[in-house]
């Protein structure tokens, strides 16, 4: 039997994606469970950012993540092809600057950015996500920093107590989901 054949035979009964894990998984699902953050309009976001000032591609990714409180961070795989498309359409121009490509709007691009309206595309994402979701990224970062500090500088007793707090927090979070609100 060829290497890996047994695994393929075991999975064959379940199709390409193995046994079902409930809704939200598989090729059309949302991966890690839970609801998926709404994707933003990368094209409109790029035009809106470049209406403010010229930027590099990576800088745009960072700006969008910052402006949405970490809710939306478009991937390089969506940003760079969009930049190329906008450049092909004559809406932006790119030039080399310090070893990076700096993009700016052309006159046609300014017209396209203005016609999109006064509300930036990332505003809809943060509005739809709600107040708590816009602050969770910051809170998680602060939590991780506290955990690192306790694990690095704390005594064995302090590290054990921190682990209890983490486990309790996990249980309480699942308890929130289990609470039916009555």
TrEMBL record:
InterPro entries: ArsR-like_HTH, Tscrpt_reg_PadR_N, WH-like_DNA-bd_sf, WH_DNA-bd_sf
Bias (Gly residues): 17-28
Chain intervals with Basic residues compositional bias: 29-38
Gene3D superfamilies from the UniProt entry: Winged helix-like DNA-binding domain superfamily/Winged helix DNA-binding domain
Record domain Transcription regulator PadR N-terminal: where: 46-113
Positions of region (Disordered): 1-38
PANTHER family: TRANSCRIPTION REGULATOR, PADR-LIKE FAMILY, TRANSCRIPTIONAL REGULATOR YQJI
Protein's UniProt name: Transcription regulator PadR N-terminal domain-containing protein
């Amino acid at each position: 039997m060829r290497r890996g054949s047994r695994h393929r035979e075991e999975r064959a009964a379940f199709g390409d994606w193995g046994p079902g894990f409930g809704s939200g998984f598989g090729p059309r699902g949302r991966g890690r469970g839970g609801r998926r953050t709404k994707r933003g309009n990368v094209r409109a976001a790029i035009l809106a950012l470049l209406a403010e000032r010229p930027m590099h591609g990576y800088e745009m990714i960072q700006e969008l993540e910052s402006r949405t409180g970490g809710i939306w961070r478009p991937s390089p795989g969506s940003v760079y092809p969009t930049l190329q498309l906008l450049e092909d359409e004559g809406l932006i121009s790119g030039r080399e600057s310090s070893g990076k490509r700096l993009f700016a709007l052309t006159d046609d691009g300014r017209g396209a950015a203005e016609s999109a309206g006064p509300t930036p595309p990332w505003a809809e994402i943060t509005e739809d996500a709600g107040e708590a979701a816009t602050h969770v990224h910051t809170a998680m970062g602060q939590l991780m920093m506290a955990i690192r500090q306790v694990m690095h500088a704390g005594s064995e007793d302090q590290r054990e107590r921190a682990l209890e707090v983490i486990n309790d927090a996990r249980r309480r979070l699942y308890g929130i989901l289990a609470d039916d609100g009555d």
